[in-house]
Amino acid sequence: MTTAETEWRKLDRRTVVVSVLRTAGLVAVGALPAVVAVSGRFSLALAAVTVGPAMVLIIGAVAIGDDIRWRRTSYRIGAERVELVSGIVVRKRRSLATERIRSVDVTAGLLLRVFGLAHVKIGTGEQTGAGESSLSLHPVAAAEGERLRRELLDRPAVRERAAAADGTLSRIDPSWIRFAPVSVLTPAIGGAAFGAVLQVAEWFGMQEGVISWTLDQLRAFPLVVSVLAFVAAGLVVGVVGSLLWFVEMWWDYRLEREPGGTLRVRRGLLTTRSVSLEERRLRGVEVVEPLGNRLLGAGRVDAVATGLSRQKEGERTDTKTLQPAAPRAEADRVAALVLREEVSPTASVRLRGHPRAARGRRVRWALLTVLVAVAPLLVLGLVLTPVLLHLAWICALVLTPVAVAIAFDAYRNLGHGITGGYLVARHGAVRRSTVALQRRGVIGWTARQSIFQRRRGLLTLTATTAAGGGAYSVHDVGESEGLTFAEEAVPDLFGPFLERT
Amino acid sequence: MPATGGRPAHDDPGSDDSGNGGAVLRLRPPVNRVDPRAKRWWWTQTLAITGAPLVVLVVLALALPPARGWLLVAAAAVAAAGLPLGILLPLWWYRVHRWEVTDSAVYTRTGYFWQEWRVAPMSRIQTVDTQRGPLEQLFGLATVTVSTASAKGAVTIQGLDHQLAADLVQQLTETTQATPGDAT
Predict the structure, then answer these.
(1) Which of A234, A285, B52, B106 has CB 3.0 to 4.6 Å from A190, enough for a Cys bridge?
(2) Does A386 or A462 have the greater pLDDT score?
């Protein structure tokens, strides 16, 4: 970097236009119910006179506010520091050491893309509060964003080491879309759709009308048919929704390894996203298989890395996902490529099972869960009405085999092992997770043993790490075996405190 | 598995985990107990926890004659359950809470029903904090928290003599400063 570049720069001027358009859209949507309500009760003219100026006022305020923000915000990319000065009333000056920058993420929503702009987030990957370790440039020109990304992440020192094996590691296979509907998203979208219909109806004051119209339509059929029809409608909407969501999220997905020793995920149809991850920060990968995906033999690959921006509440994009749900072999292949291993450590054959006592524990938990679910019905049935008693035994009859099956599956899924530089742990039935963690990334061990585990000689081992969730567990492993494993995986942590009896 | 060291024998064949040639491997307890004054500190806490509802119930019983019987029964129940527990638990905690600091790591054991052993290596320690609440100050105690770069890797030692805690912090800080790297 030359000294000429250390001048202060401004964000892109067009941010004001973008803000005005975005606010106009939001205000229009928000104004619709107001207009309907006022014109319904009074007249359309009155609605136009009241709502119109309010809209103009809001949009104007946003335009002025964003203009001031633009004037008061500037950034500087220096040889040693990246600085950002911002704040309309309270001035903030934030600076990051250039050599500590670990991620530059570029996101561009539809509106930003139309104007050739992008939102750039520069992070150091430190585990401090979410806001403190990152700078947000919102927005800059798309080309400027790309330039920042290259400049900040491409360092010669790293480049030498990682010269080999560049290029595209994985790209989207359109057939993967078949895994999209079998997720929790489908019922969630289906349910949300009903809620949305009722909400819109309420804006127009027709909520009761819609409900009674629906009931009228359904009255012609038996109850079972109408319930099924409702569920089917919800499912169809949910499936379509999750398919659309998948297309929007994973359109043109590519996972690449760049010369600077960086992994880069690019994806998105309307909103394009580019997430860069310095390989130095990578501590392992996690292959996640939710039950629906696992039944179809698919799994998702997540990065276990230090300082990935944590998912905010309600934010659906997950920056740590390296590959969406794909056939298991493909997931393992990408995991191996990402970790630069011959064979993926997450492959099943390399795991050791756990003592059978762990199965007993899971079966007991399952039965206890069923009991907790059925007990209230049973008590109420005894006190109030025998109908509930029938419901209770039907519930028990249906739930018990399901719970026990899940328990057996959970036991089968328990496993741990060591492959090269990685320790591997697997657990879970509804959400099976296989994590491969760099052994030198483990910065502490925790062993937990409940009194029940002690009686059966089991132990839950947790490796703490600076990356990802902070801790990854090997559940219900045999006590001696687990401690041997811990010592073998990361020598001299538990070692000095072990004794043989 | 041979049932050595007083461990109950397993009747379950699947739990045979002879991963190390038959010998049973286990974590030994850390060397040091917490300061004996910690018992008094914990007693004060448990008595406060039991005492507060007890006082409220008794005051209410005095103030509301119609409900006096029930309130006194409730108060007696709280006292009957709370006082023995409040007296015995700290004795027990004193037995199970242990800690040790070696040249290479900080090692603690806590709990009985849910026993937990934690180890944080010196080379990965990022911060060493001491906390002293008002009660701890009264009893001359301190709590030391050793944290690593992991959000879940902190090791806490409660109920140390405050002078010992200060020395410990000093020692840990010096050792960790001498270790290179960013501890992730």
Answers:
(1) A234
(2) A462
Instruction: Give the one of B24, B30, B184 whose C-beta lies nearest to A306's C-beta.
Output: B184
Query: What does the alpha-carbon distance between residue A120 and residue A140 come to, in Å, rounded to a whole number?
Result: 7
Domain finish residue from A153, A187, A220: A153
Same domain for A37 and A133: yes
- For chain A, give the mean pLDDT: 83
Report the range out of A93-107, A338-352, A366-380 with the highest average pLDDT. Answer: A366-380
What ipTM score was computed for the predicted complex, to two decimals? 0.77
What's chain B's length in residues? 184
**Domain housing A133:** 3-153
Residue A295 is assigned to a structural domain of this protein:
yes
Give the whole-angstrom CA distance, residue B50 versus residue B46: 6
In the structure encoding, which two tokens stand for residue A164, read together?
């080999």
CA distance, residue A362 to nearest chain B CA (Å): 14
Among residues A117, A136, A153, which one ends one of the domains? A153
A408 and A418 assigned to the same domain? no
A130 and A15 in a common domain? yes
Order of all β-strands in the sheet with B141-148: B125-131, B141-148, B155-161
Whether residues A42 and A105 fall in one domain: yes
User: Cβ separation of B4 and A501 shorter than 8 Å?
Assistant: yes
**DSSP state letter for A467:** B
pLDDT of residue A365: 92
Three-state secondary structure call for residue A337: helix
A174 domain residue, yes or no: no
| Domain total in chain A | 4
Tens-digit pLDDT profile for residues A51-89: 888 888 999 999 999 999 988 888 888 888 888 888 877
The pLDDT of A375-386, averaged and rounded, is 84
Smallest Cα distance from B144 to chain A, Å: 17
